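User: Predict structure, ligand zinc ion.
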Amino acid sequence: MAELEIVTIGHPVLETKAAEVTKITKRTVKLVNDMLDTMYAANGVGLAAPQVGVSERIIVLDVGDGPIVLINPVLTTAEGEEIDVEGCLSVPERWVYVKRATQVVVTGLNEKGKGVRIEADGLLARALQHEIDHLDGVLMVTKMIGEATVEVEGEEGE
Ligand code: ZN
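Assistant: Predicted complex:
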């Protein structure tokens, strides 16, 4: 396992639509583990593969309930809306208001190739939408409603 370098805004990989993972290999599993290491080291709650320079549809998250790995995630349901502050490990030192769905269902595969279905609300719902946006080359600053002047207590980067 290893920490990877997090690429920041301005890098073209962050604005590129990432490719579907067609086969889960040992390399995929290593990438997932390295992404988790990188996310925890950066005190993030989520990380998408493009943020470590890999244009593949893989995200990892942990909002305090243990690690979640999603390969080829799809947002199948999104309901409600809420404006709140979020940050991004690829957009350092900025906190912005973004409107997101409050309740989501996301399906995908885990690193063993097993189907996963996650129903989420609160921070996890927001983080899932943020990370899936990364796979489509969309950064929070594209969707932001306004700049937040201070970091919200307890809010971490994604
Ligand atoms: Zn982000």
